[in-house]
Write a structure and sequence with these properties.
The structure is a single chain. By secondary structure, the protein is mainly α. It contains 11 helices and 2 strands. The chain has a two-stranded antiparallel ribbon. The protein is globular and about 60 Å long. The C terminus is likely disordered.
Length: 291
């Protein structure tokens, strides 16, 4: 039963990493830029959910605060792209990376100034509730994280595979110039990509806060999510999610069966091995151009 509980805990954490990694990959595919502030956007989404939900703040019901948080984070992603990223179109990738790293620092500072640096907890309906199954204690919050991630993954699949807008986004991510020539509004598609990335970050933050504490440093989880995206293959949406699950599963098992302190190191050892053995990731979508 201990193995089952470790598995459930790893899957729940991996789902959060995977959702953040999906944001990395979406923005990279649409703009060829890496948003190193994606983890900090997740942290901001968690704080907004807590601020809207908890008693002593706005005290909205959980089912009302989550959709409102999604709207706020979608608008937040749109504003980041419109105000900051659109101003550096055509600049080097290093300039864009430095800009998003700086945005991450700013978001952590703002979160600390507004909500402080002590841990905050989301007062959701799942807090403290467990399911007992043949001697195993399963946290309702962890089950909730897994279910929401599965539903969101299915929704994203149908959006990108079955809707005109989703297909246009895929086309623009594969060849922006060709997409422009066939009438796809590439800049609007890129803005929408940032909206979706903001929503994904917000949902990941909500899920993380549903099962643990949040403080401004929580945004640094984006580093693990970035590693997950690299492990899965930076151009692959399914790979990003699977990479997150791999890291999420590695952590609890290495923490249980390896000496103390190694659990945080093992995911990065896996990252190094993947980069050596399969540099483009486990599920890379690299296409070779003929000249």
């Amino acid at each position: 039963m201990e193995l089952f509980q470790l598995l459930l805990s790893g899957l729940a954490s991996g789902c959060v990493y995977g959702l953040i990694a999906l944001g990395f990959v979406l923005i990279y595919k649409a703009t060829e830029a890496i948003n190193f502030a994606q983890g900090d956007m997740m942290m901001f989404g968690a704080f907004i959910t807590i601020w809207l939900t908890n008693s002593g703040y706005n005290n909205l019901p959980f089912l009302f605060s989550v959709p409102l948080m999604i709207l706020i984070m979608g608008a937040f992603g749109f504003l980041i792209e419109r105000i900051f990223l659109r101003q550096v179109i055509g600049q080097s990738q290093i300039a864009i990376a430095i800009l998003t790293i700086a945005l991450g620092f700013v978001l952590r500072f703002i979160a600390g100034a507004i909500w402080g640096h002590e841990p905050h907890f989301l007062e959701s309906p799942m807090v403290g509730k467990n399911i007992y199954l043949n001697g195993a204690v399963l946290g309702l919050a962890e089950i909730f994280v897994i279910i929401v991630t599965v539903l969101l993954t299915v929704l994203l699949y149908f959006f990108f595979a079955k809707t005109k807008l989703g297909i246009a986004m895929v086309a623009a991510s594969q060849n922006q110039l060709a997409a422009f020539y066939v009438g796809i509004p590439v800049k609007r598609v890129q803005s929408l990509t940032w909206v979706i990335a903001g929503i994904l970050a917000g949902i990941a933050g909500m899920l993380f806060s549903a099962k643990g504490s949040v403080d401004p440093i929580t945004g640094l989880l984006g580093i693990k999510a970035f590693a997950a995206a690299v492990i899965g293959g930076f151009g692959s949406l399914p790979g990003a999610l699977i990479g997150g699950l791999i890291i999420g599963l590695i952590e609890p098992f290495s923490g249980r069966y390896l000496p103390s302190g190694f659990s945080h190191l093992v995911p990065y050892i896996v990252l190094v091995l993947v980069l050596i053995l399969r540099p483009h990731g486990l599920f890379s979508q690299i296409s070779h151009k003929k000249v």
